[in-house]
Structures are given as structure tokens and as C-alpha cells.
Amino acid sequence: MALVPCPACNHPVSEQARACPSCGHPGSGERGGVARVLGNVAGTYISATSFASLVLGVVMFTGFSAIMITLILSHR
């Protein structure tokens, strides 16, 4: 298992890695699942940290919306 430079950011990445831990660029390993789908969206790649932040934001927005709707409907 050797380290090779990432073609996008030049960060050392394992040959078997699915994506670069620094920038999210798909690795030369098995390209499947979420990394491949997200990599094809608008020709960009999303890192795991960015994806986790996006999911957290959606969950927080949904929870806040549910609380606000409950408060509005309870005052009627």
C-alpha cells in the first residue's frame, strides 16, 4: 500500500483510498457509491466533512421548522 499524490491537491493519499481526505477528489481505488455520485454532481467533488456539514444543516433546519410550526399551531 503506497502513498501517491492526489491529482487535485497534491496531498499524499493511499492507492486504495476511495477519496482524498484533504479535498475529496476520488482516488484510484474502487470508485463506487456515494463518492462517485457526488463527484458527478456539477463536475465537483465533495469531501466527507462538507457532506457531514450539509447533512447536519438539513437536520437542524428540519428540526427548527418543526418546532416553529408546532409553536404557531399551538397558539391558535
Structure description:
This protein is mainly alpha-helical and 76 residues long. It has one domain (3-74). The protein is built from two helices and two strands, in the order ββαα. Strands 1-2 form a two-stranded antiparallel sheet. It comes from Methylobacterium trifolii. It holds the Pfam family Zn_ribbon_3. This is Putative zinc-ribbon domain-containing protein. The chain crosses the membrane at residues 51-73.
Please report which band the strand proportion falls in: under 5%, 5-15%, 15-25%, 25-35%, 35-45% or over 45%: 5-15%
Radius of gyration: 19 Å
Count of all domains? 1
Number of helices, counting only DSSP H or I runs of 4 residues or more: 2
Element-by-element helix/strand order: EEHH
The backbone outline, from C-alpha atoms, is: rod-shaped
Poorly predicted segments: none
**Secondary structural class:** mainly alpha
Q: State the distance separating the first and last CA atoms.
A: 64 Å
User: Roughly how much helix do the residues carry, as a percent range?
Assistant: 40-55%
Largest sheet descriptor: 2 strands, antiparallel
The total of beta strands comes to: 2
Enumerate the strands of the largest sheet in spatial order, edge to edge or round the barrel: 1-2
Mean pLDDT: 79
Pfam family, one: Zn_ribbon_3
Domain Putative zinc-ribbon: 3-26
Organism: Methylobacterium trifolii
Protein name: Putative zinc-ribbon domain-containing protein
Q: Can you summarize this structure?
A:
With 76 residues, this protein is mostly helical. It is built from 2 helices and 2 strands. The chain has helices at 33-40, 48-74, and strands at 3-5, 12-14.
